[in-house]
Fold each of these.
Amino acid sequence: MKLCSRIKTILSLAAVTLALFCGAAFGEVNIQYPASAGEGNPFAVRITSSEPLTGVSAKWQGWTIPLDITVWNGRYIAIGLFGAQSGKVKTGTYPMMLTLQSNGKKREIKLSIKITPVKYKEDRLTLPESMVTPPAAVLERIARERKAAGAALATLSLERNWGLPLIRPVDGIVTSPYGRRRILNGKPRTPHGGMDLRATTGTPVKAALSGRVVLTGDHYYAGKSIYIDSGGGVITQYFHLDSIEVKDGDIVKMGAIIAKSGQSGRVTGPHLHFGLCLSGQQVNPEPIFTKNLADLLEKTALAKVEF
Ligand SMILES: [Zn+2]
């Protein structure tokens, strides 16, 4: 037994030595990422390796997101979709830390991404104070719903179900774009976290991406709402619905009818509020209604690392 375990030790030492020796000639990993991105604009990062990858994660804006690995043409590929929320992340240069694992080895790569300013719409409104401040009786409800929404947006499932471009959930025009900042009674409010699309009550609403329903509810501000997780930190939101046609845990396909639009919650008229949240950052969905992944990866920087 003793001899046997000694042989095993020698063998495993030999394996480690061999792995270390081979390490020098290990495969190359290509990383495509944007050197700069406008605030609120979604961007993609793609990692391509000729050697087997067993784990990839990206740390961005305080979140660590595990990325799904697919094998295509003998190459190991991981793709992430990210952004920096307008009004939440200041413009400037931020690090993205990538952690790659292969055959028991770990490699960390630091990318630098510059978030540049984007001019979003701004309008000033004067409204009676009673319309701006919610009544005290609903504060507890608002806090509870904010917590539930926060938990839904923090879903980090590994399997990547998103693909680009997104499907437009309704055909209507944009009545209020992403990033619009309202200055109510002289006080700036949080910029618009999604986009409003014109839709009369009863218009069928399609899922912009495939995924799993992680939250449905009837919230004070958002009204009847749906949150769908598409993996890799990608969550889509559908607010102010008239009726919800899915339930928590349902798996939906891109383009499937999930609801009828309406005017539930705190709104002045019927429309669909559509939101795209990438690892806790509400971003502008508009650019990726037309751009596919190849378009997003065009003009990106390239980092090459060796394992
Ligand atoms: Zn809205």
Amino acid sequence: MYSIEVNSLSKSYGNFIAVDGIDLKVESGKIFGFLGPNGAGKTTTIKLLTTLIPPSSGKMNILGIDGVKSPLEVRKRIGVVLQQPSYEPTLSVEKSLEKYGMMWNVDAKTRKVRVEELLVAFDLADIRKKKNDDLSIGQRRRVQVSREFMHDMDLLFLDEPTVGLDPSARRGLLDYIKSRVRDGLTVFFTTHILEEAEYLCDKIAIINRGKIIAVDTPEVLKSKFGRKKTIKIHLDKRQDISSLFGAIPGCIIEHDSDTVVTIHSDQSEKVLQNVLQILASNGISVEDLSVVPTSLEEIFLSVVKNSNESNNSSGK
Ligand SMILES: Nc1ncnc2c1ncn2[C@@H]1O[C@H](COP(=O)(O)OP(=O)(O)O)[C@@H](O)[C@H]1O
Ligand SMILES: [Mg+2]
């Protein structure tokens, strides 16, 4: 069963294509991660799927409802936390939650129970009487995310919900989302932080320049790209040696600073042999040399970079 099914969905602003013919299938009861750099089209996609803006073309089925024809039907059954801050400055934390529940016609008794539960779950109990205006950005974000859980829904959209949260609040939120998904909620979650998507999501789509360039489970994405290793060379004095390595096949060379050279490759043993040979035959002394698995962050960046390059070379 799918909670979201989307075919060739596009959104243009004039000549600019913000979302470019994406296909998506999101399984019910799972957490789907939507990952991409700034400007990739994540927020636009969320606005399309939540029917806040109409698509330029394409089809979308949300919870079995035609989202293009019946946007209001969709909205009754979903929750959405947008990227943009939204709060009433003079309202206290607890009143913000209470009022949100009223807006959704949640009965008084249920509201009371949920407010108490959410104040604890989002670590807001100590500041329950504080006005939104007097909160830090991270606290306000926690209020904005927590109030969405005041009402019943089948599908929740979260647009970069962890931005501005400290590590413990971030972890708390991710774990709370996990617990709600165990109870049957489906979550569509955007982030530009790969570790977060890996921790939380059953499936991850990577979007860049309005196009989806990879969709898979975190495990598969890792095994597909995770064979890559990174060789880091710290020189003991500044010198430009990248040209020496240019001839080694199958690697990408970066100059991080005057004395640090990074080499990415998925044939690290071979490349390492070559590197050591070149260093020795040129009499280059090295302070430190290490070989480490490429981090998820770097994998993500390289996938995005490759897709940019293939776009450019296709004359776009
Ligand atoms: N209303 C709009 N008018 C024109 N361009 C827009 C509008 N909304 C978004 N864009 C553009 O669409 C692209 C994708 O934006 P967005 O979906 O917000 O990216 P993300 O959320 O991944 O950072 C950006 O280049 C942005 O400038
Ligand atoms: Mg965004």
Amino acid sequence: MASHAQTTERPEDLTSAEASSESSEFTPNKVLMDLMKCTPSAEDKLPDGSPARIDRPEAVDAINAIMKKEFPGIDFAKIYGGLLDDRELGRYERGEVHWPSEYRRTAMRIFFGVDTDKKLGFSRRRLALQPVLDPQQLNREDGSEAAESAGGAAVQALTGSRPAAAHRGRSRTVDASTAHPARVYDYWLGGKDNFAVDRAFADTLTTKFPWVPTAARSNRDFRVRAVEAVAAAGVRQFLDIGTGLPAPGNTHEVAQRITPQARVLYVDNDPMVGVHQRALMTGSREGRTDYVEADIRQPRLIFDDPALANTLDLREPVCLVLAAVLHFIPDLAEAQRIVRALLDPLPSGSFLIVSHGTPDFVTPQEAAEYERMYTAGEAIARTRTKDEIATFFTDLDILDPGYVAVSEWRPADESDKRPKPHDVSLYGVVGRVR
Ligand SMILES: C[S@@+](CC[C@H](N)C(=O)[O-])C[C@H]1O[C@@H](n2cnc3c(N)ncnc32)[C@H](O)[C@@H]1O
């Protein structure tokens, strides 16, 4: 499929650009550059009769003037990104920024006379589904030195530790130009391992749904209580996929408090989590922890990684922890296949812990607004109903209290001060493999 870098369409012929926008990641924003040449204010003609390219400073001034006019109440000096500058517009042209702020996109649409962000060359999906791992790299099994990526090297340089096998050859560098779930979540939890783009993205959602940081904390607390319950039931092995950035209550800390011999294999596909992997590896002397950078959509790569065999004994029960990660798999059938493929190798007596975003606890208006934001790439979790989430637990025995909001799952705080289901909007469920 042609990418923007190869197309030559003018603004009046953007259909092919729209069709190809999914493939245009990481390519210079040719569409925007073409628009710069053809904007109505670029009246001067070059000697060959073609329209002169509008100056960046001129475009920046005009876009900023439109921003101020369209959003009169906004103090741009105080918000992330603020007014546009020449350097930033250059980054848009080079395709380094996939999803500028709503204010900037609106002003640019007006300035360039187009009705969609795609026609500016910005793809909503880039932000919503930013692939942290390149699928071609994911399929590479050899882990050879030649395949060793800059990301793996960066981890090594930053942590002094050798990247895990799945990490070698697959990791990409930390990308500070697009929002990533682990860093957005870290921001909501009050962490410091996030970039401006993550905070801006997170703030867009919290402007509409102010309770989201509460939901993040409740999710984390649910995972702690669920891991405690499973460890107390005698399970000593945990496979935690979609680990997140290290924060108080990491799975190994919780499990090893109950069983010092507990072993935990962490898996995440965000290179930033890999950078902090050492913090996940400081378990008890008796126990063991390891980290694999891999994508949940590749269960075989996870099970084939030597770190798994070194950490977990699949003849003994394992607790599979999928906390707030399945909702990043938009397709339900794919999410079901993933869960099946992850559970299949685990013996009877294993457990599955899932937390998952849901529209079930909010008003229809809120659900509709969330859906709009999800479609616009302003939210990244594909929420699911109780019945959909239940399909992950086919043939498992569900532990009490069943399918409830994360804050209602065996709450530590029995008072009515704990967050309401509406304010967490995540189901927390634990099942046992028969
Ligand atoms: C909201 S955080 C949840 C962190 C942790 N499980 C918790 O509940 O506290 C979601 C995590 O899933 C990871 N993630 C998202 N998509 C993933 C994928 N396809 N494969 C592996 N990890 C993924 C993100 O990088 C992020 O660290």
Amino acid sequence: MISLKRRFSNLKEANLPNSKETAKKYGHKEIIKLFYNENKYLPSPKVRESIKINSPNIYPEYKEPMLIEKLSDVFQIDSSYFYFSNGSDAILDCIPTLFASKTNKNNIVLPELTFGRIETTALVNDIEVKKVQLDDGLINLDKMLEAIDSKTSIIYVVNPNMPTGKLNSHENIINFLENVPNNILVVIDEAYGEYAFGIKENYENNKEIIDKFDNVIITHTFSKLYALASFRVGYMISRPYIVNLFRKAYQYLPINKYSLQAALAAFSDKNYYDQIVKKNNEEKEKYYATFEELKIKYYKSFGNFVYLFVDDNKSFEEFLVSKYGVLIRSIRNNAIRITIGTPEENDIVIKALKEYYV
Ligand SMILES: Cc1ncc(COP(=O)(O)O)c(C=O)c1O
């Protein structure tokens, strides 16, 4: 039998920099963090007003009734279709354990470059992962279908994809779902869905998917557009038989009461967040104009980040952090991802890009 020490030796710890240590190392007062795809604007002012530290000695109510009713109302989907968790990470973490079996030699089909949680949990559970090549940054849904075999139990699609930012249209997704055998679970991770489609259209699309297909989980987060990353709230929409499986298998009360209050307040201020989607798009255009001017290859991104190609990621990263205190994310030797910051932060990066590429 393989030793306990060796069993998980292929797992890698996330290589995440610490802002304070980085500031100290490079002698900056502050670091501009464009690393995690957080929303660099503050959440709706209603969030601050909503948080009341009352009865901290009492558990939150089972099934998060207020938030679930609000979401049910906005999506026009029954409340039994929603499940919340401590960030959408926590839902993704459960999926391989619940829906794939090592004993049955199941595999999970996912894109070769995408968000890593499902792959990590698959590795922990010794479940095989089949990776599908991207088409110039886009998840090729036909190739994902071709990769399915008799042992496939889960397919994971991030839309828009992260880190590339490329989007499959709603029509493509529907067409794809129609072709996936019904005994395979499809997970559609829409952490950036509101940015890509706009809030209204995104949620209308979700309703159509959930009404049509009973083998789908759509995941969403309050960490991105809703600017509540520190509160850790994520949720999924799926058919009640799947939602109930999560309720039976995992924590009854996965989210603290104050996070639920914050999420409810944020979700009730659509106008505020429509404005953020708009500002995010305007700021992306500023980046694109700069990339064009400097002849830098990039992908048009549907998230709150941009993906670009550089000659040498390490030297560009070092230049940005040492001179300007900006932390970005290296993806590959020749590719990096930059989170869209505030206009002031983006101006600093744009200035740095122009200086680096003179
Ligand atoms: C594609 C994608 N899915 C899910 C998550 C997890 O978000 P959270 O756990 O904060 O809800 C992230 C975070 O960066 C992400 O990029």
